[in-house]
Design brief:
The protein has about 110 residues and is of the alpha+beta class. It is built from three helices and six strands.
Length: about 110
């Protein structure tokens, strides 16, 4: 039973990490010049949190470019974002992703 409880805790923590990432960073200014830096900052922020052993963030360059204003930047939108996190609680490890679901028009999280 302890393993199941730790797995549930790891799943919960993964959801918290991805939800926090989404709500903290959606709307920030992003351009082609700083997109890689923004991705690294977002990864770094997730890695600071307890139990995170790996994080990856990707911003869709095509969607970013399409959304660009005449001033050379835009605000980060949910449909541009892909994030992955690995959370380890004791011996239990889970991998979760946040990605845009085009059919639902909504950012969904799932375990992979």
């Amino acid at each position: 039973m302890a393993g199941k409880k730790k797995r549930e805790e790891a799943c919960f923590e993964a959801g918290i990490k991805l939800g926090a990432l989404f709500h903290q960073f959606i709307g920030i200014p992003v351009s082609m010049e700083n997109v890689e830096l923004v991705e690294r900052v977002m990864e770094s922020c997730m890695k600071l949190q307890p139990y995170v052993s790996f994080s990856k963030v990707r911003i869709d360059r095509k969607k970013l470019k399409k959304s660009m204003s005449e001033f050379g930047y835009t605000s980060l939108e949910g449909e541009m974002l892909y994030a992955e996190v690995v959370v380890r609680v004791d011996e239990e490890e889970v991998r979760a992703i946040l990605r845009w679901d085009e059919e639902k028009k909504y950012p969904l999280m799932s375990l992979i």
